Amino acid sequence: MQASSVPSQSESHEKGISRPGPVLSVIIPCYNERGNVEPLFHAVEQALVHLDWELIFVDDASPDGTIDEVWRLAQADSRVRGILRVGRRGLSSAVIEGILSSSAPVVAVMDGDMQHDERLLGQMFDAIRNQGYDVAIGSRHVEGGDNSGLANWWRLFLSNAGIRIAQLCLPVKVSDPMSGFFAVRRDLFVRSVSDLSGTGFKILLDLLMVQKTAPRVIELPFVFRSRHEGESKMGRKVLIQFGQMIAHHMLTRRKTSLPTASGGGTAG
What we know:
- The protein is globular.
- The longest helix is centred in the last third of the chain and has 22 residues, at about 235-255.
- It has about 270 residues and is α/β, with parallel strands linked by helices.
- The protein has nine helices and seven strands, in the order αβαβαβαβαβαβααβα.
- A seven-stranded mixed sheet has the order 3-2-1-4-6-5-7, with helices on both faces.
- α2 runs parallel beside α3.
- It has one domain: Alpha-Beta Complex (Spore Coat Polysaccharide Biosynthesis Protein SpsA, Chain A), CATH 3.90.550.10.
- Residues about 1-10 and about 260-268 have low confidence and may be disordered.
């Protein structure tokens, strides 16, 4: 087995062996996704055989024991980490905490429900690390992409309406700003984090809206799959939070664009 060839932590300390960290961290915000944890790990493992990576599950105290499954898996494989959040909820804030817990130069975000195609992660990493992009987006709305995995007309309506509204507010043209599947340079994210609203489910849109200069963005097509386990969390609350985030950023822009009052007058 591969694990037998890897020196233990005590052996590494005795021999002075340096073990570099991952080049890619995959952040997975989750709630009631216990049945998806191990299948997702194995899917990523097969997709990223040529990279040093880690999975960081950020769990909002799921009652189904999601974090217990994460910790069980982490005991068997050190590439898995779990963050348990108690007393706070929200996808965007979970992603922020997950990214800030990582030191990898490239971070990716994907859902824990197996609807995002993990095979795209390698292309996202390459686009940022080797092609010079700041953000790589898994897009359902470029040629080759598809959103047929959306559960019902309500989710489809929310997605399409949100995209049209969001495109009016962005500093860069993006066909799928509502995507929850993307990768970003970690340093860009860290520089932006104090300006993020941190509310709602659309952290990519939040990130793009706070950029002062247009980032280099590439969109890569993927097919949005049907849910593997569990239930969708989408509802009317998502629409409300989306509106709040848009309003927050538009108000912030208005405040920063207002001219400052000049003191004093002219003599004459």
